[in-house]
């Protein structure tokens, strides 16, 4: 099939889809319209107390009896709009420097409580839990989420742009205590005001919402905004918190020194490791924080999860270093998952190896309606890598109710080289289109300037829009990556391929009442993704996906069956595995996919994914499986396995990728983990043992053992052993 007929066919298909999307938009605006999800009272008033409370989870103090207590919770799942089935109550009290939340989660079946986790930053979506979100600026866009479970485990999230930014790696300084008795589980949550940023006003008015999950019933309840079209992070549908007067962030200066000591053995070479450094955080205003870091260290970080790459494109590895994870959304500007203008892993990591960081400064926060993120870091010279400065400035100005305009500048400089990227973007968000419809539009443009690269054809453009709801999801995306666009502080999945992209998909997920076992169908009438080579406009990749059947059961099992049709044009051969090369040419292939996931709230759950069909010059079969097993609230086990079997004209090969983890939590502030992985592409076993202890909230103690073994030629030979201890202590002034 020649390129021109393919292009004509695709243009016709896409034009049809555009008309279809317009019709779907119009249709979806006029069905299932619901009034605003407001339950009265939709305001809660915090009561001021004189002294800090004893944090024990026993809600017997007099002030808890006197404080306003809200009880009007409504189900989002399973029975939308009905009252909560188990009595739930919340109160808030505060001192001048901390807030306390009292939580009453009554239970008719104590043995039915599902609470598998105890560690910090637990997987709260699998446990019974209680969640609170604060919109401290009342901007109806951004929020702080705090989560607890009946074991006293804690997790927290920072959300931005109505949930489009979701930083689960943010860690605030706060604490909680929980008790379980014959009536249910009850909690006291302490959140110092220094953990939050808020306007410098005598009388504060914040947005607030509460959520409770009762997993054995698959029941999810909200205080406000319980429509299935509104996620908890949509703070525009939250209630109001009043009564906070004369509060302050107690600590204006936070000092966190660290010391790391240990030794490392590489082959037969031994060396000791000793390092000191730390961070200083200064609260310039209640809404703006300056962070200074010296001799930045990441000794406690776990190794990346290994991946087998059977594509011709770059693999993406997420950031794990806590320093860069804090406030990450203040710097983020992405054109989808494949083009990231700033990716923190470009700082201090080169080809998977650590490059020492001398230090740097970071300024982030909000001034009136302007979000500011500024970061500058200096790395040491290492081998043939010169000392390099990395700087990024990101600003976003709030406009309308929940939208923004923004800009970004990244700069990478060393003595012989420079790279700059500058861009602007605009996001429009609303959850009240035609009454109560969510709508999102994003547009961005960026340009790079690199020493030695022509300053022409150096743009990247992104246009994206979506209309999400519980029943329908429709989106469209256009992207253009020009030949000389080069974000050296970012990430390009198709870094060696400059392209234009058009993507559109539709999901249809109707609820069902006539089938007693099913909760919701999950159909995908279409997904179309097309890449054209930017210079020649010749089709490079086309991806078509159709999901004729998919569903979620009332017991929360999930099943899908997909049919995928793919076109790939190779201008040059590429090595898919070891010495097997795929020749240049044009390829069409069809892949069938099955997936089944069981409910993760059970003590044992699993995920199974199978795909098979034609691939390149032959056929392939792939399998991915994951098994999760909970022994008790202290011990959780997991294992995963990826298998690929390719039978091509150029040869046959099999890949295996295995991983496993044991987590043991002594209590919510002390836990250990053992993680192992191996695959036959790199022929290396990696083992990580990690012990962490929080002696005082805000301080951490780590003990880490990392080991690597070569498995080349079916022999297990130790190559690297690292043993480190690290102490981080927090002081405040």
Explain what this protein looks like in three dimensions.
By secondary structure, this protein is mainly beta. Among the domains are: 36-245, Sandwich (Immunoglobulin-like), CATH 2.60.40.1190; 314-496, no CATH class. It contains three helices and 47 strands. The strands form six sheets. It has a 24-stranded antiparallel β-barrel. Strands 1, 3, 6, 7, 8, 9, 12, 13 and 14 form a nine-stranded mixed β-sheet that branches. A five-stranded mixed β-sheet has the order 2-4-5-11-10.
Number of strands: 47
Write down the CATH class of one domain.
Mainly Beta
Largest sheet, described in full?
24 strands, antiparallel, barrel
CATH topology of one domain: Immunoglobulin-like
What secondary-structure arrangement, pairings included, does this model have?
Layout lengths: L2 H27 L13 E3 L1 E2 L13 H5 L7 E4 L10 E7 L3 E9 L22 E7 L7 E6 L5 E7 L4 E3 L7 E7 L2 E9 L10 E12 L4 E4 L16 E7 L7 E14 L2 E17 L2 E7 L27 H4 L8 E2 L3 E2 L8 E2 L2 E2 L2 E11 L2 E10 L8 E12 L3 E11 L4 E16 L3 E14 L8 E10 L3 E10 L9 E2 L6 E10 L9 E4 L1 E11 L5 E15 L4 E13 L3 E4 L2 E3 L2 E13 L6 E12 L2 E13 L4 E14 L2 E17 L2 E10 L4 E10 L6 E11 L6 E12 L2 E2 L1
Parallel strand pairs: 1-14, 2-4
Antiparallel strand pairs: 3-13, 4-5, 5-11, 6-7, 6-12, 7-8, 8-9, 10-11, 12-13, 12-14, 15-16, 15-46, 15-47, 16-17, 17-22, 18-19, 19-30, 20-21, 22-23, 23-24, 24-25, 25-26, 26-27, 27-28, 28-29, 29-31, 31-33, 32-34, 33-34, 34-35, 35-38, 36-37, 38-39, 39-40, 40-41, 41-42, 42-43, 43-44, 44-45, 45-46
């Amino acid at each position: 099939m020649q390129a021109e007929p393919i292009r004509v066919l695709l243009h016709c298909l896409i034009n049809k889809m555009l008309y279809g999307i317009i019709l779907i938009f119009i249709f979806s605006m006029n069905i299932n319209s619901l009034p605003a999800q407001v339950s009265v009272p939709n305001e809660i008033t915090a009561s001021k107390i004189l002294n800090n409370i004893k944090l024990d989870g026993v809600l017997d103090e007099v002030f808890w009896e006197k404080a306003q207590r809200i009880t009007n919770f409504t189900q989002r799942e399973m029975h939308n709009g009905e009252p909560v089935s188990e009595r739930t109550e919340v109160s808030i009290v505060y001192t001048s420097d901390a807030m306390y939340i009292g939580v009453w989660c009554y239970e008719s079946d104590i043995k039915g409580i599902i609470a598998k986790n105890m560690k910090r930053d637990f997987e709260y979506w699998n446990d019974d839990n209680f969640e609170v979100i604060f919109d401290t600026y009342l901007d109806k866009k951004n929020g702080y989420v705090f989560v607890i479970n009946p074991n006293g485990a804690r997790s927290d999230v920072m959300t931005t742009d109505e949930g489009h930014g979701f930083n689960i790696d943010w860690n605030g300084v706060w604490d909680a205590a929980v008790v379980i008795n014959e009536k249910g589980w009850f909690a006291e949550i302490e959140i110092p005001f220094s953990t939050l940023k808020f306007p410098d006003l005598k009388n504060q008015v914040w947005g607030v919402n509460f959520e409770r999950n009762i997993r054995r019933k698959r029941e999810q309840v909200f205080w406000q905004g319980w429509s299935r079209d509104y996620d908890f992070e949509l703070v525009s549908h939250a209630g109001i918190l009043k009564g906070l007067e004369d509060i302050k962030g107690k600590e204006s200066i936070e000092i966190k020194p660290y010391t790391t000591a240990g030794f490392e053995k590489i082959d037969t070479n031994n060396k000791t490791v000793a390092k000191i450094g730390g961070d200083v955080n200064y609260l310039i205003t209640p809404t703006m924080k300056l962070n200074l870091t010296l001799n930045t260290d990441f000794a406690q970080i776990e190794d990346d999860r290994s991946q087998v790459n059977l594509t011709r494109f770059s693999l993406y590895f997420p950031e794990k270093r806590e320093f860069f994870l804090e406030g990450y959304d203040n710097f983020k500007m992405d054109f989808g998952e494949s083009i990231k203008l700033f990716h923190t892993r470009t700082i201090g990591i080169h080809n998977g190896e650590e490059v020492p960081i001398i230090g740097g400064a970071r300024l982030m926060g909000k001034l009136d309606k302007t979000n500011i993120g500024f970061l500058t870091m200096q790395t040491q010279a290492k081998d043939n890598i010169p000392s390099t400065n990395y700087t990024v400035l990101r600003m976003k100005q709030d406009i309308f109710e929940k939208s923004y305009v923004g800009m970004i500048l990244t700069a990478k400089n060393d003595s012989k080289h420079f790279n700059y990227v500058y861009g602007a973007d605009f996001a429009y968000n609303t959850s009240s289109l035609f009454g109560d419809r969510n709508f999102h539009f994003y547009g961005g443009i960026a340009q790079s300037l690199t020493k030695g690269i022509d300053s022409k054809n150096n743009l990247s453009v992104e246009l994206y829009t979506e209309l999400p709801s519980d029943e329908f999801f429709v989106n469209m995306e256009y992207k253009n990556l020009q030949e000389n666009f080069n974000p050296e502080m970012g990430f390009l999945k198709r870094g060696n391929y400059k392209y234009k992209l058009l993507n559109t998909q539709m999901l249809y997920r109707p609820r069902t009442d006539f089938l007693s076992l099913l909760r919701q169908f999950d159909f995908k009438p279409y997904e179309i993704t097309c890449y054209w080579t930017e210079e020649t406009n010749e089709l490079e990749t086309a991806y078509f996906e159709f999901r004729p059947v998919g569903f979620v059961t009332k017991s929360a099992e999930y099943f899908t069956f997909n049919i995928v049709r793919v076109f790939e044009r190779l201008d040059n051969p590429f090595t898919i595995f070891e010495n097997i090369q795929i020749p240049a040419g044009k390829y069409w292939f069809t892949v069938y996919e099955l997936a089944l996931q069981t409910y993760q709230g059970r003590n044992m759950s699993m995920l199974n994914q199978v795909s098979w069909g034609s691939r390149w010059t032959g056929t392939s079969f792939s399998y991915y499986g994951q098994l999760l097993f909970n022994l008790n609230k202290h011990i959780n086990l997991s294992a995963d396995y990826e298998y690929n079997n390719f039978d091509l004209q150029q040869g046959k090969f099999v890949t295996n990728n295995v991983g496993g983890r044991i987590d043991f939590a002594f209590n919510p502030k002390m836990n250990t983990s053992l993680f192992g992985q191996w695959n036959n592409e790199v022929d290396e076993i990696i083992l990580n043992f990690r012990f962490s202890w929080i002696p005082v909230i805000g301080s951490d103690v780590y003990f880490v053992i990392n080991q690597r073994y070569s498995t080349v030629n079916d022999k297990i030979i130790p190559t690297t052993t690292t043993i480190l201890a690290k102490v981080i202590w927090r002081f405040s002034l």
